[in-house]
Design a protein that fits this description.
heterodimer, A: alpha/beta, globular, B: five-stranded antiparallel β-sheet, 3 helices, 5 strands
Chain lengths: 110, 138
């Protein structure tokens, strides 16, 4: 798993590449916790290059979202593809998270 | 039924990819498409991580994975441990309607397993938990 971060105005844009599984998800959560503790409140997570996500990945996303909610922050998702879209659907994540087809569309919502 | 491959290793997260590689390679050699291999890997990860975390009190047991092809050309994965009796299928399905604060992640792994495989069976036999996934070609 590879995580790249960039900031546009007040929005942190996080791109995740590869696999978010039981082995790699903890480091995603650590990175996010670190950014949140530094005061970041608006996140867009771009999953266009994410090939695989398991319940461990979902757990780390949920833990991040809970932290953000406590601080009145927000996280949106962009560009989910293939298996990741499927897992989000099965897990009912579309009822708690907003996902957009493009990063631009997500930025416009924040 | 024809056994393709078996791998037995200590039940530790460090070995997750080794288990998955063996089974993915088998499925690929049998001509299963990438989306089905993905489903197999995900179901396997969920089952194995449960074993790594909960099967053995002293964390020193093994997990064994066997992949086979049955007479109907379906892919079969057996995941076996000698840990405490645990039928993952007895888990109730998670509530997928609660909001972020109330949403629980427990049970989601088992739910994914059930949804991504075409059949799933559990049996306890000779002191072992045997979880079987059946995956159709399409």
């Amino acid at each position: 798993m590879e995580i790249t971060k960039r900031k546009e105005k007040d929005i942190m844009i996080i791109s995740v590449k590869g696999r978010m599984d039981a082995v790699t998800a903890p480091s995603f959560e650590e990175d996010m916790t670190d950014l949140i503790s530094k005061g970041e409140k608006a996140f867009i997570i771009n999953f266009s290059k994410l090939e695989y996500i398991s319940s461990a990945g979902l757990r780390s996303i949920l833990a991040t979202a809970k932290q953000l909610k406590e601080k009145q922050g927000k996280v949106l998702f962009a560009e989910l593809v293939g298996p990741v879209q499927e897992v989000f659907k099965i897990a009912g994540f579309y009822s708690i998270f907003q996902a957009y087809d493009t990063e631009e569309a997500a930025i416009n919502q924040l | 039924m024809h056994v393709l491959s078996t791998i037995k290793l200590p039940a530790k997260l460090d070995n997750l990819y080794k288990f998955m590689d063996v089974v993915s390679r088998c499925a690929k050699e049998q001509g299963f498409p990438q989306n089905r291999i993905n489903d197999i890997e995900l179901a396997m990860e969920e089952a194995l991580v449960n074993i790594f975390n909960y099967a053995y009190k002293d964390n020193t047991g093994a997990a064994e994975v066997t992949c086979s092809i049955d007479n109907d050309k379906r892919f079969i994965v057996d995941i076996i441990d000698s840990g405490i009796p645990f039928n993952v299928l007895s888990h109730k399905d998670p509530d997928l309607t609660s909001d972020i604060s109330e949403r629980e992640i427990g049970g989601l792994g088992v739910f994914l397993m059930k949804k991504l495989t075409d059949d799933i069976q559990y049996r306890r036999e000779n002191g072992k938990n045997i979880l079987r996934f059946v995956i159709n070609r399409t």
